[in-house]
Design brief:
38% helix, 9 helices, Isopropylmalate Dehydrogenase, alpha/beta, 298 residues
Length: 298
């Protein structure tokens, strides 16, 4: 039976990453579907204590994983939680984009059948509006729709894309902001002209209240607009997928959880889901030659 080779980095050794990875790798289900290469699991650290040395270890682990993929010794990547300070205040997404020379990388959250695109990521809430533009929104959604069509959707099915609004009550006719009419709606109209089945903007609560099968993609304007409802609906299943890299990369949809590190109580289901999704996507990639970077399993 073919098994893809998946590099799995521990993240911050003072967080829950090493614990949840060890738990996940002990499961027969994971052993049956891939050949894992754990990286950085045994680094000694004080649980819950973030240090610059730990940040350095995070980066070293990622660089090792990238080397394995580039030299054909691994097919895909799963990353454990790390502090943003390891990447100079950015995140894995931006670091990996820069390290691989990828011009456009998007953050897609997958939770069961729900797939949610974050148009902005780790930026202050007050700067969200000025980081949105018709052109960039269109580019982000186009790339994500292509990814969904390649990996998740049956052939000849046009993914249904729902846009959330930015302001309360989607600006209530311009009474509480105008981003919906000035930026979001024109972006939707542009996408429709390109043949993308987009709708909205809708109030975020209305979109997430619908069944998971109502839309193939939900587009959120900022980080917490996406993460809050997802964590309330199915926090154990959230997986972060980086779109636009020359290989598959996933991670569990949570942070370092320093407060429970070292207690042995960390929930490892999100890491299980991240590995399983990485395996599925990598298998699809190898089978259909969607992107070509890495080796071809065992």
């Amino acid at each position: 039976m073919f098994k893809p080779i998946i590099a799995i980095t521990a993240g911050d050794p003072a967080g829950v990453g090493p614990e949840i990875i060890k738990k996940a790798l002990s499961e027969k289900e994971i052993k049956n579907i891939c050949v894992p290469i754990p990286i950085g699991l045994n680094k000694k650290a004080i649980p819950g204590k973030h240090t610059p040395a730990n940040d350095k270890h995070v980066v070293q682990s990622i660089k090792k994983a990238l080397y394995l993929i580039k030299t054909g010794q691994a097919d895909g990547l799963v990353t454990g939680p790390a502090a943003k300070s390891a990447f100079n205040g950015k995140g894995y997404t931006e670091f990996l984009a820069n390290a691989t020379g990828s011009k456009q990388v998007e953050m897609l959250m997958v939770s069961g059948r729900r797939k949610v695109l974050l148009l902005t990521r780790h930026i202050p809430l007050k700067t969200v509006s000025r980081n949105l533009s018709i052109k960039e929104i269109s580019k982000s959604v186009e790339l994500t729709v292509d990814f969904i069509k390649n990996y998740f959707i049956r052939q000849n099915h046009a993914p249904k894309v729902a846009f959330c609004g930015l302001n309360p009550h989607i600006s209530d006719g311009g009474l509480v902001g105008n981003e919906e009419s000035k930026i979001i709606l024109p972006a939707i109209q542009s996408l429709i002209k390109q043949g993308i089945n987009a709708s909205g903007p809708w109030p975020a609560e209305s979109v997430f209240m619908k069944s998971a099968s109502a839309f193939d993609l939900i587009v959120c304007l900022y980080h917490d607009q996406a993460m809050l409802p997802l964590k309330l609906l199915s926090w154990k299943k959230i997986v972060n997928v980086s779109i636009g890299l020359p290989f598959i990369r996933t991670s569990p949809g949570h942070g370092t959880a320093y407060d429970i590190a070292g207690t042995g109580t960390a929930e490892y289901m999100p890491m299980m889901e991240a590995i399983k999704l990485a395996v599925y996507l990598t298998n699809q990639n190898i089978k259909n030659k969607i992107i070509n970077y890495g080796c071809s399993g065992t």
